[in-house]
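Quick review question:
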C-alpha cells in the first residue's frame, strides 16, 4: 500500500516538563513556513534516530490550537515499558533538536452531528482533547470534559484547564484523593444526542466501552483512541507471502511484521507499529485476520480484504498475504 503521509523536518523550539513523567514539545519548521492544517483529534508520526543508529517511530496526538499552524505541540509520557521512542524524546530531545514528522491524520475527530460531546481522558490521554477544546471554544456545541489521573502531580495541564476558558465544563478525578469517576452514573445521564469520546489507558477505554454498552448507548456514539500496540497474544500461525511463496511461522509473542523483518523475506514500510498510521496495510488473499488496529473501519475489518501487519494477527491457522 502507498505511503499516505508527507514527511518533513521540524525543529524543537520549546520543551516543558508538564509532570514528572510528561513533557510538552513545541515543533516548528526551520524556515518559519506554516505547518499543515489539522483538526482536533489529529496525530502525527514522529521519527527519531539515535546516535547509535537505532530508529524509533511513534504516533503522538497534536494538542495545540488548530487555528495556529505556526507550530505543533505534542505531549510525551515516559513509558515504563518504552520501546525506545518515549525514552529518546525525554532523554535526548532538547530545544534545537531536529525531528522528522508526518503530515497529520485524524482517526479521532469530533462528530459534529452530536448534540453533546462528552470527553473522558485518563492521564496522557488528555492531549487530543486539548486541541478539540480549542475547536469547541466559542462554538455553540455543548460539551464537558472528565479528566482522571493518579495524583495531583500527574495532572498534566491541570492549571491550563482549571483556569482557562473551559474551566466550567471540566471535571477532575484524582485517585490519590479518592475522587473517582463514576462511569455508570455518567452514561446513565446521557440523552440520545450525546457522544462519548475516550482516550487513555486501555482499562479506562475498555470500561467506557462496556459501560456505554450496558447503558444502551449505540456503538457509533462511542469514540476511542489509544496509541499502544495491541498485546501480542494467541497461538502461533503460518503466513505465506504469495509473491515469493515463502512461508513464515509467526510465534506467540511476535507480530507478523517482526516475523517478516527477522527473516528479511520482504520489505514492509511501517511508520507507527501501533496500528494507527495505515502504512503497513497489506491485502489478504486467503484466511482471516484478527484485527487489532484503529485504522480500518468496522466495515473494512469485517470485509477481510486487508490488515495491518504491525498489530493484527491470524484468526485462521494459515494466512496468505499479497507480499
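Suggested answer, residue by residue:
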Amino acid at each position: 500500500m502507498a505511503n499516505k503521509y508527507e514527511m518533513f523536518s521540524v525543529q524543537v523550539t520549546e520543551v516543558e516538563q508538564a509532570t514528572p513523567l510528561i513533557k510538552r514539545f513545541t515543533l516548528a519548521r526551520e524556515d518559519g513556513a506554516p505547518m499543515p492544517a489539522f483538526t482536533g483529534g489529529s496525530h502525527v508520526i514522529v521519527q527519531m534516530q539515535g546516535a547509535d543508529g537505532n530508529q524509533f517511530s511513534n504516533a503522538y496526538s497534536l494538542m495545540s490550537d488548530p487555528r495556529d499552524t505556526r507550530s505543533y505541540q505534542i505531549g510525551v509520557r515516559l513509558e515504563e515499558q518504552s520501546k525506545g521512542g518515549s525514552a529518546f524524546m525525554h532523554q535526548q530531545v532538547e530545544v534545537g533538536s531536529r525531528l522528522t514528522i508526518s503530515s497529520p491524520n485524524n482517526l479521532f475527530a469530533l462528530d459534529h452531528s452530536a448534540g453533546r460531546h462528552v470527553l473522558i481522558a485518563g492521564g496522557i490521554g488528555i492531549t487530543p482533547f486539548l486541541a478539540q477544546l480549542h475547536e469547541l471554544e466559542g462554538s455553540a456545541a455543548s460539551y464537558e470534559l472528565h479528566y482522571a489521573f493518579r495524583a495531583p502531580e500527574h495532572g498534566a495541564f491541570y492549571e491550563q484547564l482549571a483556569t482557562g476558558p473551559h474551566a466550567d465544563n471540566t471535571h477532575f478525578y484524582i485517585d490519590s484523593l479518592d475522587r473517582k469517576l463514576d462511569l455508570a452514573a455518567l452514561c446513565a445521564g446521557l440523552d440520545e444526542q450525546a457522544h462519548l469520546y475516550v482516550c487513555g489507558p486501555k482499562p479506562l477505554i475498555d470500561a467506557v466501552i462496556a459501560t456505554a454498552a450496558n447503558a444502551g448507548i449505540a456503538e457509533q456514539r462511542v469514540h476511542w483512541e489509544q496509541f499502544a500496540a495491541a498485546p501480542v497474544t494467541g497461538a502461533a500461525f503460518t503466513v505465506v507471502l504469495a509473491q515469493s511463496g515463502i512461508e513464515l511461522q509467526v510465534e506467540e509473542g511476535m507480530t507478523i511484521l517482526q516475523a517478516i523483518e527477522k527473516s528479511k523475506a520482504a520489505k514492509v514500510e511501517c511508520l507507527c507499529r501501533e496500528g494507527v498510521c495505515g502504512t503497513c496495510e497489506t491485502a489478504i488473499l486467503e484466511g482471516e485476520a484478527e484485527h487489532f488496529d484503529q485504522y480500518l473501519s468496522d466495515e473494512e475489518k469485517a470485509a477481510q480484504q486487508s490488515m495491518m501487519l504491525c498489530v493484527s494477527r491470524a484468526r485462521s491457522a494459515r494466512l496468505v498475504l499479497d507480499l
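Why it works: The chain is about 20% helix and 30% strand. Helices lie at 85-92, 127-136, 158-163, 183-188, 202-214, 256-263, 298-303.
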